[in-house]
Design goal:
By secondary structure, the chain is mainly β. The chain is built from no helices and eleven strands. The chain starts with a strand and ends with a strand. The structure holds FE2/S2 (inorganic) cluster. The site of FE2/S2 (inorganic) cluster has 10 residues, from loops.
Length: 121
């Protein structure tokens, strides 16, 4: 397994991401709430470029006493990425689809060493 540079820790502000070419693979590196995560840039649905999708908080649909959803809310503790091809979304922390835990992204090994970030793929 080879190691590829994904830049310096200081290159990433909170909420930033980079998609890094790692040989024949692409890996998305994300910085969320000070932590780094790395996922292969192949959606679990049909292999779309999921790491290039929009980042947003998890959407909640609170049900009222009448059993109706009248507004949307956002879970400020959960960051998701939305695949640009068909809209599947995944937790950046866990790689899991919120509605089906068997559908998940493939994790890439991430190493932080001496202020630099590396990905093994
Ligand atoms: S390929 Fe990602 S949602 Fe279909």
């Amino acid at each position: 397994m080879n190691e590829y540079s994904a830049g310096k820790v200081d290159d990433y502000q909170d909420g930033d991401r980079k998609v890094v070419l790692c040989g024949e693979a692409e890996v998305g590196v994300f910085r969320i709430a000070g932590e780094f995560y790395a996922w292969h840039n192949r959606c679990a649905h049909r292999a779309g470029p999921v790491c290039q999708g929009r980042l947003m908080k998890r959407v909640l649909e609170p049900v009222d006493a009448d059993g109706q959803v009248r507004a949307q809310a956002y879970d400020e503790c959960e960051d998701h990425i939305i695949c640009p091809w068909h809209g599947y979304e995944f937790s950046i922390r866990t790689g899991r689809h919120p509605g089906n835990e068997r559908v998940r992204l493939r994790k890439a090994e991430l190493i932080v060493r001496d202020g630099e970030i590396y990905v093994r793929a």
